[in-house]
Design goal:
- With 282 residues, the protein is an alpha/beta fold.
- The protein has a single domain (9-281), classed as TIM Barrel (Alpha-Beta Barrel).
- It is 48% helix and 16% strand.
- The chain is built from ten helices and eight strands.
- It has an eight-stranded parallel barrel with strand order 1-2-3-4-5-6-7-8, surrounded by five helices.
- Strand 4 (99-103), helix 4 (120-131) and strand 5 form a beta-alpha-beta unit.
- Helix 1 (20-37) runs parallel beside helix 10, helix 4 (120-131) packs parallel to helix 5 and helix 9 (236-256) crosses helix 10.
- The model has no long low-confidence stretch (mean pLDDT 94).
- The protein binds flavin-adenine dinucleotide.
- Flavin-adenine dinucleotide is lined by residues 45-46, 48, 74, 76, 101, 103-106, 119-121, 140, 146, 148-149, 154-155, 158, 162, 171, 173, 200.
Length: 282
């Protein structure tokens, strides 16, 4: 890789598989990523509304048994009681986990998610209060703003609250407009937040899925990207080649602009992330 990466944090995100076959595919993907990238950590998502709390724990356990790379569970407060959170934290402490991605979480499909914490900032504060400095805490950041935030200023103020509650670093929602990340980093600097804001990278492998995800999470797909993907939605090879080129260039520019690392949303597949990584390394 052309930049100095000594202090950069590269990581990959997985979701908990629901079948044995899914787990064996994941372990294979993990092995390829580990060999090529030596990531600082793998993270494992948490189901909406706490729906697959146990599957996250089980996946973390299996990944820790089969590799040397640190594993960071996501933990969200949506739909969880204080007791459930404390039990989960104790389970992770007992397993030797030292890093968490702490979130409010998405609403479950049935829209019902009562819990003892309303926002990620409250969960971060609770984790610090009950476990001190045991965990390195990552929180989510939104260069193109969280869809529920009434204004960009509200979005940033709430992000800053999470950091002041005790977060050590942030991972962003994915984006394809580099200016949005640069602006967020400038704002963090101006506010004296002093934490790394690692860009979340979504490889492009499927037009319909990307549009659906982006509509849900509020990430913008620039028109020139959307039009190309639309044109190639039935030509997988061309779509993958275009997606790899676009996302590799974004990663290259981010590193040139001083990004403190990259977090890849792998969706449990290694090929697209590895293709981008190869381009960055050559
Ligand atoms: P918060 O930081 O709590 O913010 C949620 C909304 O509330 C924002 O609009 C914010 O501006 C607003 N807000 C915050 N504090 C206040 C306040 N005091 N008063 C009024 N409004 C406030 N989802 C999952 O379900 N599982 C996962 O594993 C998962 N992993 C993720 C990983 C990353 C890196 C990212 C970027 C997102 C992830 N998500 C995951 C999605 C995330 O849970 C959703 O985006 C969720 O809607 C918000 O979570 P948050 O932690 O950012 O929430």
């Amino acid at each position: 890789m052309s930049q100095n990466n000594t202090h950069r944090t590269f990581s990959c995100e997985f979701f908990p598989p629901s079948t044995e076959k899914g787990m064996s595919n994941l372990l294979q993907a993990k092995q390829g990523l580990e060999q090529a990238m030596s990531p600082a950590f793998f993270s494992v998502t948490f189901g909406a509304g706490g729906s697959n709390r146990d599957r996250t724990l089980e996946t973390v356990k299996q990944l820790r048994e089969t590799n040397n790379t640190d594993v960071a569970p996501h933990i969200s407060c949506m739909g969880s009681s204080r007791r459930q959170i404390d039990d989960l934290l104790q389970g992770y402490i007992d397993m030797g986990v030292k890093r968490l991605v702490v979130l409010r979480g998405d609403m479950p499909q049935d829209g019902k998610a009562e819990g003892d914490f309303r926002y990620a900032s409250e969960l971060v504060a609770h984790i610090r209060e009950t476990t001190g400095e045991h965990f390195h805490i990552e929180v989510a950041a939104y260069p193109e703003y969280h869809p529920e935030s009434p204004t960009p200023a509200d979005d940033f103020a709430h992000f800053a609250n999470k950091v002041r509650a005790g977060a050590n670093s942030a991972i962003t929602q994915y984006f394809y407009n580099i200016e949005a990340w640069l602006r967020l980093v400038d704002q963090c600097e101006a506010a004296g937040l002093g934490i790394p804001v690692v860009p979340g990278i979504m490889p492009i492998t499927n037009y319909a899925n990307l549009v659906r995800f982006s509509d849900n999470c509020g990430a913008d797909i620039p028109r020139w990207i959307r039009k190309n993907l639309e044109a190639w939605q039935d030509d997988r090879e061309s779509l993958l080649a275009f997606g790899t080129e676009v996302v590799s260039r974004l990663c290259q520019q981010l590193l040139e602009q001083g990004a403190p690392g990259l977090h890849f949303y792998t969706l449990n597949q290694s090929a697209a992330t590895l293709a981008i990584w190869d381009n960055l390394s050559s």
